Amino acid sequence: MNRIVAVLVRESMSAAAPEGVDPREFLEAIAEDTYEMVAGLELVTPVLVTSVPGLDDLVWPGTEIVEIDEKATLREILARLGGDQAAVVGADAPDLPPLLIGKMFRELGRARVVVCPAEYGGAVALATALPLPEWADPDLDDPDLVATLRAQAPGRRMVATSPGWHRLRTPGDLARLDPGLEGWDNTRVLTSAR
């Protein structure tokens, strides 16, 4: 089974940069932390999917970088990934526990699409067998992605959820970062001085 985990970096994700921190530097920090978590997973191939140029030095040599338009849909992104199964993880979740990615792939044993919901709406990540089912039109920023996908699906059991997490969408969201978790070192350095 060939599993891909794509870290999605959009320019808009820099909006959570705290006052006094360069938005580009913040975006690079969260993207690198999320990528490092994904790259450390066993039995998956990490990919960086980005609308932001110049992030090559954030990834390990040999990592595929897929350049997209800022408004590219998840359907368009997933169509450009290989493999049997794929997950797309928003880079704005730098302290996401790796275990949650594993749980998403495990849920694919009984569902076609799995969503890791985000606190206060939207989703942190989405996993699916490839190709994405024709009926699915996912968007990580959909306020209730699970309900939307279940309404699109021909059967309710085709969409599953994993435990949820949080995303950094505004500077206020930085308070949700869990200092007790390992990882997210780059984001920690930028935000600890604030």
Would you spell out the secondary-structure blueprint of this structure?
Layout: E1 3-9, H1 23-39, E2 45-50, E3 64-67, H2 74-79, E4 85-90, H3 98-107, E5 113-117, E6 123-129, H4 145-152, E7 159-161, H5 185-192
Parallel strand pairs: 1-2, 1-4, 2-3, 5-7
Antiparallel strand pairs: 4-6, 5-6
Task: Please tell me about this protein's structure.
The mean pLDDT is 96. α1 (23-39) packs antiparallel against α5 (185-192). The protein has five helices and seven strands. It has a seven-stranded mixed beta sheet, with helices on both faces. The longest helix is centred in the first third of the chain and has 17 residues, at 23-39. It has helices at 23-39, 74-79, 98-107, 145-152, 185-192, and strands at 3-9, 45-50, 64-67, 85-90, 113-117, 123-129, 159-161. With 194 residues, it is α/β, with parallel strands linked by helices.
